[in-house]
Amino acid sequence: MLFLDAHKRWLSHQPVVRGSLSQTRVHPREVAKDTLALGAHGMVLANNQAGGSVKNTQAVARLTRTLQEALTWVGVVTHEHIIFAQGQHPWVVQKDLL
């Protein structure tokens, strides 16, 4: 995750969760806790797809919406969700999900 101030300037970056080869459990409260501890106003979600695909899946869309909704409740703006996969160009989740 990339944490940003109110002017969209970089504050920090850090992994929020680590997953296995097949799945990752992301808890919105942990993401919110880390974001608030840094005093961030916004964030960019970023994750590595271990399966090697940057395709939009229902799981990715659901995760993006869940985190965005949870962070909105604590006043944090989700600017982007970038997905990385080995050997492929990064993919940005469609803005209409944010």
Walk me through what this model shows.
By secondary structure, the protein is an alpha+beta fold. It has a single domain (2-97), classed as Cytidine Deaminase, domain 2, CATH 3.40.140.10. It has two helices and five strands; from the N terminus they run E-E-H-E-H-E-E. Strands 2-1-3-4-5 form a five-stranded mixed β-sheet, covered by helices on one side. Helix 2 (58-73) links the parallel strand 3 and strand 4 (77-84). The longest helix is centred in the C-terminal third of the chain and has 16 residues, at 58-73. The two termini are 16 Å apart.
In short:
With 98 residues, the protein is α+β, with helices and mostly antiparallel strands.
Largest sheet: 5 strands, mixed
Alpha-beta content class: alpha+beta
How many extended strands?
A: 5
Helix percent reads: 25-40%
Bin the strand percentage: 15-25%
Radius of gyration: 13 Å
Q: For the residues shown, what is the average pLDDT?
A: 79
| Name given to the CATH architecture | 3-Layer(aba) Sandwich
Put simply, the count of helices is 2
How is the secondary structure organized here?
Blueprint: E1 2-4, E2 10-13, H1 28-37, E3 42-48, H2 58-73, E4 77-84, E5 91-92
Parallel strand pairs: 3-4
Antiparallel strand pairs: 1-2, 1-3, 4-5
Helix pairs in contact: 1-2
